[in-house]
Structures are given as C-alpha cells and as structure tokens.
Amino acid sequence: EYEPELHEQIMKEWFTFEDLVWCDQTAIQKIIRELDSVDLGLALRGAGTEVREKFFSGMSEQAAQMLREDMGYMGPVRTADIAAAQEKIVKVARKLEETGDIIIQRPTELVV
C-alpha cells in the first residue's frame, strides 16, 4: 500500500542537501537558475564548506560575492528556516534529475 508521507520521508533521507556536492558544475548551474537567491543564501548558511564552495564556483564571481555579502547581513536565522530552504533546493534537484536535465552521481554509482 502506497503511503505518501512514508515515501516523502524516505526520499528526504535518500538524498540530502549535502549530497549536492556530487553534482557536476553544469548541474549546479541548472539548479541555481531555478532558485530564489534568498532560499539559496539561507540553505548555504547552514551548509558545509564543500557544498558552499560547490555552489559559489557555479556562479559568476560577482554573483558569488553578492550572495556571500547577503548571507553576512542575514543575522541570526532559525535552523528550521535553513532546513526548509535546503529542502526546497533538494526538491528542485530531484525534479531536474527526474526530467533528465541533470545527473546526480552518487559516490557508489558509475556514470559514463
């Protein structure tokens, strides 16, 4: 029997925001194009260094600098807001993967 809530929970655990580090630069750029800069700033605020740099390297130098400045001006942010922004970005990435626009290579998968 299909249970939508269980399915959503499994999908959340199966692929997390930190897993976006496995995307190539083309995929990162496509994901960024689909995002609101506020959501991206919030999500990166709670991200590890490797994921932050992955996203910043997918942007122009000027856009990356502006986003870094925006993140610095945010002040205190609730962890729930960061988690919600990260989940939005994961949903965008999954949608792009489902439509074949990007490939997210996981460490255990071989992509040729």
In short:
The protein is mainly alpha-helical and 112 residues long. It is built from 6 helices and no strands.
Task: Write up this protein.
There is one protein chain. Helix content is 63%, strand content 0%. The protein is mainly alpha-helical. Helix 3 (37-45) crosses helix 6 (79-98). The longest helix is centred in the C-terminal third of the chain and has 20 residues, at 79-98.
| Classification by helices and strands | mainly alpha
Strand content: under 5%
Q: What distance lies between the first and last C-alpha atoms, to the nearest angstrom?
A: 35 Å
Radius of gyration: 14 Å
Number of strands: 0
Indicate the overall shape. Answer: globular
Order of helices and strands: HHHHHH
Biggest beta sheet attributes: none
Provide the helix percentage.
55-70%
Instruction: Give the number of helices.
Output: 6
Low-confidence stretches: none
Oligomer: single chain
Q: Average pLDDT, to the nearest integer?
A: 88
SSE order and pairing:
Blueprint: H1 4-14, H2 25-33, H3 37-45, H4 49-57, H5 61-73, H6 79-98
Helix pairs in contact: 3-5, 3-6
What labels describe this entry?
single chain; 112 residues; mainly alpha; 6 helices; globular
